[in-house]
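Lab meeting, action items carried over

1. Structure of the two-component assembly. Owner: GW. Status: complete.
Input record:
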Amino acid sequence: MHRIAEETADKQAILAVSLSFVVAMFPHFFHLPLWVSGFALMALAWRGAQARGWLWAMPKWLLVPLVLVGGISVFAQYWTIVGREPGLALLTVMASFKFLESKTHRDILILVFLCYFLLATHFLFGQTIYIAVYMFIALIIITTTLVSINQRDENVVLSDRLKVASRLIVLSIPIMIILFILVPRIPGPIWGITQEQRGGVTGLSDSMSPGQISDLITSNEVAFRVKFDTDIPSQEQLYWRGPVMVNFNGRTWKQAKHRELNSLNLTQTSNPSRYTVTLEPHGKNWLFGLDIPTQILPDSYMSSEYQLTSNKAINDLKRYSLESTLQYRLEVNESFDYLMLASQFPDNSNPKTWALGQQWAEQFDSDFSIVQQALQMFRNQDYVYTLQPPLLGQNSSDEFLFSTRRGFCEHYASSFALLMRAAGIPSRIVTGYQGGEYNEVGEYLIVRQSDAHAWTEVWIDDLGWIRVDPTAAVSPDRIESGLDQALNDTLANFKIGKRNPLIGQLLYNWDNIQRSWNEWVLNYDPRKQARFLNQLGLGIQSWGDMVIALVICLMLITGGYWMVGWYRDRPAKPAEYELLINRLLKKLARSGYQRQPSEYMDEFLQRIKQEQRYHDEHLAQIFQVYNKIKYARGYQKPTVLKRFRQLVNSWQLKGDNTRK
Amino acid sequence: MLDQTPLTTKQMQQGIHTAIQQIEQIIVGKPRQIRLAVCCLLSSGHCLIEDLPGVGKTTLAHAIATVFNLDFNRIQFTSDLLPADILGVSIFDPNKQRFTFHPGPIFANCVLADELNRATPKTQSALLEAMEEHQVSVEGQTRPLQEPFFVIGTQNPLDQAGTFPLPESQLDRFMMRINLGYPDEQAERQLLAGESRQHLLKETAAVIELQAVIELQKMIQNVHVSESLLDYVQLLINATRDNSRFVFGLSPRAALALLKAARAWAFMHDRDYVEPADVKAVFSAVSCHRLLAHERHSKNVQDLVEDILNTTPIP
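Predicted assembly:
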C-alpha cells in the first residue's frame, strides 16, 4: 500500500486528473479573475508538458517563493482572503501549485479529492437545477478518474471504468436523498456566504429613467412564480406592486425615503386573493405582491406607499404567502409633506408639459376630468406603443408628448405623472410587473422580467391614491393579454404557450420542474423538514430522532445493497439439462449401472457395455447431446433443450441385457 | 496433399487423420503415443520422450517431420556440446571481408534433441530458452526461429553416469512427456517381418503443408472451452496441489498447457469444443513430468496422477 502511494504517477493519470480539474473548475472560470483562471490552465499545461517530457519539473526552490507570490496576489486582488471569491481564488491558485508539485500517486489522489472539493463549492455561487445537473456529470467524470488511477489493470477499458464510476454514483443517490431529508437543517443560507451583494442580477431598479424597463423587457428570466390558493384574477388585474417612485429630477424618477406604514386602513370591496410567491433572488430589498397586499410578512415591513420591503436583500430564493385585495379603497389622509413631494415639478424642465398641464387646470374644474383628458389624448392622438422608442434628450416628457409620440410604459407613466403634476394633481410612479403567464402543467403563474411594467397613481381628494395606467389607454392589449400581444410584430414571443404547442408543453414542464426544484430542494428549510417528517408519520421530531432515523436508513440501504450482491453471487441453480441427466443417472444406478463421479459419459457407457454388457444406443445419443449442451458453443438453445428433454423422457431402461 | 489455404475445418481434420495413419504405418502398435505427439505439435508445444534407446524415438520424430513436411534436424547431445553448436556462429568470410552467420541445427521446424541429459546445463538451457522464446540471441542479435517450431527431446532414464538430468523446473518447458515402451508382441512381429523403417520413411510423402500446420495451430486456439470444463480443469489442478501426494502441485503454466493440449486433442477428434474426455486423455502426459511424488509413496507419479483422474468428479 505504502509503495503504491510513492510510485511515480504516469502520463495517463496526469492527463485524467487535469481533465477532472478543468471539469470541476469550469463554471468557476466565469466568476474568477482572469489571471487566476489563466494561471490554473498554465499550470495544467506545464504539468502535462512535463509528463510528456517536453518541460522540466518545477524545482522546489522556485515553487516556494511562487506560492507566496500567488497568495499575495490573491490578497492584492480582494484585500482579504476570507470570503467566497477570495477563498475560491486562493484554493484555485494553491491547487494549481499542487499540480506543478505533483509527482507520486499520492499527489494525484490529493488532486482528485481537491477536485471533489472544488466541485462542491459551486453551490456557493448558484443552486439552480442546471448547476446540479452539471455537478452530477462532473462527479461521474471525477470518479472515473479516481477509479482509473487506482485501476492497475490495463485491460479494463475506459468505458468499463466509466461504468464503475457511474454505478457508484447512482448507487449513492439513495444515500444522498436520505442525507438530504434527514440531516438536521440550519435556518438560513449556509455560512451566510450568499449574503454577499450580487452583481448583474436582472430586476427592477430603485430609479427609473427612459429606456430602463425596456432593457428588462428583452429578458426572458423568471422574476417570480405565483401559486394561487384562490381563483387567479384576470390579466388586467394582475398588477404586481414593486418600488414606488415619487422624486423626479427632470429626467429620473427615484424612491422617496421610506416611512413605515403604521396601520393599513382600507375598505375591501372584493374577496381577498391568497397566493404564494417564490421570488428569484434579485439583490434588492423589495418584495412583490398583487396590488394591494393586505398583510405584512415577518422580517419585512410595508411602507406608507404600500410597498412591501424585506429587511434583508433578496439574495436567495424567497418564498412567502400573501393576501391581497384587488378592489379597495384606501384611507384618504396623506401627509402634507408627502403630497408636496408628489407635486414637485422641477423648474426649467419640460416647459411644454408644464404649459399643457396648466392649461388643463384652468380648463377643467375636476381632477377627474383632467385625468380623463390626458388619457383621451393618449388614446386619440397618434401615440404609438413600441419597444424601440427614439432616444430622448433633456426634456424627455416634452419631446415624447409633442414630437416623438413613440414610447413604452415608462414613457407614458412618466409623462402622465408629470402632466398631472403640472395640472396640480399629486402623482407618483409605481413600478413592478404586470400580468403573468399561466403554466397549466403546474397550475401556477410565471412572471418574467419581460412583464416589468410602470404605471402611475394620482391623488384625488376624498378618494386617495388611484391607479391610472396610461399604457392601457394607448395599448389596451398590453394590459389585457400581455406584452407580446401588444407587440405582436416586433420582438420574439416570450410567452411559452404562444409557440409551437408541443414545445410549449415541454417548456411548461421544464418550468414546472424548476419550480419543484425551488420548492423542494432550495426551500427545504427546518420548517419544511419538520412538516415533511410529520407527514411521514414516523414520529421523527427532535434532532436525536433524525440522527437515529438516519442511521437506520443508511443501514437499510447498505444492507439492501449487500443483499442484492449476495443474491447475484449465490450459487446458480442447476440448469434443467443437469437435473434431467441426474435423474436419468439415478435411474441407471438403481438398476445397477453406477456411474463413477470421475467418469465422463462415454467412459461410463463404454464400461457398462464391456463389464455389464449393457448396450443402449438411445442412451449414447442422450449423452452425446448432453455433452454438446454442456461443453459446446451455441447449444444451449430452447430448441436443443426441448429435443434433449424429449430424448430423456422417451428413454427406457433396456429390460433384458442385449447380448451380442 | 493439403496445401491450398484456407482449408475448411473438416479438411484440416481429415488431413490430421491421414497424417496419423501414415505415421502408424511406420511406428506400429503405439497409436496413443503418436496421437499425443501430434497433439503436442498442433498445440505449439514441445515433446519429451523418455525411454530406452532403440524403441523408436528417432523414428517417431522423423516420421512426424516427414508427414507434416517439417524441416528436420537432429542434435545429438554430448557432454562437450556447446551452445554455439546448437544456435550457430558467425564466421569471418575472407572473400566478403565480413562475418557471416552460420545458423546452427536449431534453425529447423522440427528438432530432435537426442539424449538431452548428456549435455552440460549451459547447453541445455540454450536449447530450453530457444524453445520458450521461439527465437535465439546470438552475438547480440536476435534471430527468430522458423514457425512452426517443434522440439522433440529424448532422455535416457537409465545409464545415469556422467549425465545432467533436467530438473522439474526445466522439464516444465516441455508440454508433454511421452513414454514409448516396448511394442507388444503383435507389433514387434510386424516390425520384424516388415520393411526397414528407414526405407519406409523415405517412401512416406508429406500429408500436410507447413503453412497448413501454422493454420492448424491457430485454428486450435479457437476450440471452445466452456465454463463447466474450466471447473473440471481447476478441480484437477487443485487436486495436485491440495493433497499430500506431490512435493508441489501443477503451476498455472501447466494448467494452460493442459488446456492447450486438450483443445488440440478435441480438434483431432473432430470437435470444436473440449470435453472432459479430452482433458483426461492428455492429463497424465502433460502433468507427470512436472510432478514429484513424496518419497513415502510407494506408487510412482504416473499411478498417483491416474488416482487423481479416477477420484476427481466431473462437475
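2. GW to write a short summary for the group page. Key points so far: Residues 9-214 of chain B form a domain with the Rossmann fold fold (CATH 3.40.50.300). The longest helix of chain B spans residues 9-26.
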